[in-house]
Specification:
With 155 residues, the chain is an all-alpha fold.
C-alpha cells in the first residue's frame, strides 16, 4: 500500500465512522456535536483542523451543517462567544491585558483590534458608551469629590 492509498483509506474510514456516530440511540448532526464541543470543551483558539479531528467530520461538512443549523459558521460562533466573555470581564473591571490572555489572544493589541471589529469600538470607549464606570474610576471620582468638598470647607 502506498502512502497516498493509506491517506485515502484513513479518510474513508473517518467519513464512515462519522456517518455512524450515534449518541444514546439518537443520531446527532455535525452542527449539534460542534456546538456542544464549542460550548463545553473547546479552547478559545481552536482551528478547524483540530475541530474536525475532535468531532469526527470533515471541516467542510462541519461548516455547512453549522451554517445551516445556526446561520453562522463555527468560527463566527466561537468569536462571538469570545467577545461576549471579554465584555463580561470588562464589566467586572478586569484589565484588558488579562482578558486578552484569558480568551486566547497573543497580545492586547490583537484583542483590542478583534473587539473593535466585533463591537465597533475598542474596549475602553465601548464600556464608556454603556455608561459603565470601572471600580478604579469610581474610586477616583469619589476621591475627587471628597477633595473638592474639603477644599470648599477650608475656603
Amino acid at each position: 500500500i502506498r502512502t497516498g492509498d493509506v491517506d485515502l483509506v484513513a479518510n474513508a474510514v473517518q467519513f464512515l465512522l462519522s456517518c455512524l456516530y450515534l449518541s444514546k440511540g439518537k443520531r446527532r448532526t455535525a452542527a449539534e456535536l460542534t456546538r456542544q464541543y464549542l460550548d463545553e470543551q473547546a479552547p478559545w483558539n481552536i482551528d478547524m483542523d483540530r475541530l474536525s479531528r475532535e468531532i469526527g467530520y470533515y471541516r467542510e461538512h462541519i461548516t455547512r451543517s453549522f451554517l445551516h443549523a445556526y446561520n453562522t459558521t463555527p468560527k463566527q460562533y466561537l468569536q462571538t462567544k469570545r467577545m461576549n466573555a471579554a465584555l463580561e470581564c470588562l464589566l467586572r473591571g478586569e484589565r484588558i491585558c488579562d482578558i486578552s490572555e484569558m480568551i486566547g489572544y497573543q497580545s492586547t493589541y490583537a484583542f483590542s483590534k478583534a473587539f473593535k471589529k466585533h463591537f465597533g469600538l475598542s474596549p475602553e470607549p465601548y464600556i464608556k458608551t454603556l455608561g459603565f464606570i470601572s471600580p478604579a474610576d469610581a474610586a477616583a471620582e469619589k476621591w475627587s469629590a471628597y477633595v473638592e468638598k474639603e477644599n470648599l470647607k477650608n475656603h
